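Work Package 3 (structural annotation) set out to generate three-dimensional models for the target panel prioritized at the project kickoff. During this period the team completed the workflow that converts sequence records into discrete structure tokens, so that structures can be stored uniformly alongside our sequence database. As a representative example, we reproduce one entry of 291 residues exactly as it appears in the project archive.
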Amino acid sequence: MKKRNEAIVKIACCQMEPIVGEKERNIRRSSEMIEEAAKEGANLIVLPELCNSGYVFDTRREAFDLSESVPEGETCQEWMKLASKFDIHIAAGINERAEDLLYNSSVIIGPKGHVGTFRKVHLWNEENLFFEPGNLGFPVFKTPIGRISSHICYDSWFPESYRLATLQGADIVCVCTNWVPIPGQDKTREAMANILVMGAAHVNSVFIAAADRVGTERGQPFIGQSLIANYTGWPIGGPASKDKEEIIYADANLADARRKRNWNEYNQPLRDRRKDVYGEMLGSEMNVGWY
């Protein structure tokens, strides 16, 4: 019997260098990379955190001036046009304004428009001066290409983030990120962030696509090394370079992942959880239902 390939998703992670304050330029550059990836056959394209606005804000006023409503703002509208034109899905970081509040968010956009929004749950460092903590939990979005969840950067340091997504059936977690150097990091070793991504993919049997940024912004360096991990935890795309814009690709066979989640005759990590010892949903009070 011919092997079916309906569940294969070609993922692209666009490692780019946004420039803080240059929103029009950032939108244009993100669009160029989306179009390039789409022409290479990618049907799920992931971009970095806050890729429309830049990251290191001087003032709250600047952060507000670079924000926009979702999905009515100009960035989402441009990405929606591309998703429709190329029949693709996009997961990308955005500076979201909701009335008088700002959120460090990621949007999932498909050929028919805005699919959903994730708001960063765990804020990093001075993000606490500008953004509200995410209030949407860890939603999973059912799409024609699979069940997609999204996290942002520091969320990856919390195993609950991935576990809550996979317990809801996520096939792929898209991580929009701006990873920074970790103190004490041996520069000959893999980035700590990539180790966490591979570990999370392994223990949750889920694909993870992490798109990082590069460059130095107002004195803050970023480390690149975007990565796509298989549901086994091993890299299938990247890591990308530490300092250059580029696009990495990988094919994710979602059907394979669903069939082969058992590690052996007796063990499957999601099934083997001891719910008599700890709560089914880890004590989360967030809305963790299907979206």
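The first helix runs from residue 23 to 39.
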